[in-house]
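Quick one: structure for this chain?
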Amino acid sequence: MPQIGWLEILIIVSIAIIVVGPKDFPIMLKKMGSWIGSIKRYISNIQNEVSSIGNETQDIFDETKNKSSDNPDMSKKKDV
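Got it. Here's what it folds into:
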């Protein structure tokens, strides 16, 4: 996986300062930081929801497994 070094970061920042301007550069960084923060929170919420759904599914599976092992008649199939 390619990595970004300090020289590449310096070049990107220099180009961004030239394009955006030194006056608006800190404002742009603040906006980008808030966007990145909101994206991280959104992804974290999605991960938590998926994890809770997985836990609920596992609980239901465990309950069903326990009920079937408690009742020996359910484990045997009867031919009709």
